[in-house]
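Run BTAD domain-containing putative transcriptional regulator through structure prediction, thanks.
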Amino acid sequence: MGTGELRIALLGPLDVRVDGEDRTPTAPRLLPLLAVLATRPGRPVQVDALVTELWPEHAPHDVRRTLRTYVHHLRRGLAPARVLTSSCGYALELEPARVDVFAYRSLHQRGVELMARRDHPGAARAFRDALDLWSGPPLSGVRCGPALSAYALHLLDQQRVTRGLRIEAEIAGGLHRELIGTLRSLTEANPLDEGLHGQLIRVLGRCGRRSDAVESYRGLRARLLDELGVEPSDELQSLHRSLLAR
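Sure, done. The structure for BTAD domain-containing putative transcriptional regulator is below.
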């Protein structure tokens, strides 16, 4: 079958391409098996960890033999040399850069480094390129066990951080009016996210829309008190006071 270029996407529906051809497994158990291996390319995953992920509640009687069968089918789809057997488990022979998660993290780190150098336009581009790798909720369509479920949540947290840093870079680059519509949509979708609300309040204030900024703060404060019983963060309260003092 050959050993063409293999690429795997986890930032959305799991997608597997060999020389551009779709090789995504269709069997439900093969998807989480491949996903676990793809989260650690080039590193062995222990058999017990794979068993727990594929059968979190009730494993079949001869589970190791069943797992070997799944690995055999996975090899047929990817190419035999791709999935290696080690003394403790199985490993996917693949450079991390060919898995979109690792490409995303590399771009995110590039953005952080450019931010530190105060290259805000360059940082914003790097963060946008990182976010463009996402095509939906991570690992959608995969029956995730405990490890993959936690991994997907961690990726969503990373995505929120990247998005926040991208907006910070754009604010630092002077894109205030251009961000108002985006931030309004994001705060509507995330009504309790104080970070996003703080960014919206700041860009409104910098655009001279002080009353809108104050109203946005008051709306957030009312929701926080009503739903969580807490006041906004000290940073947001300080931002509010500075708006009132102008």
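The first helix runs from residue 30 to 38.
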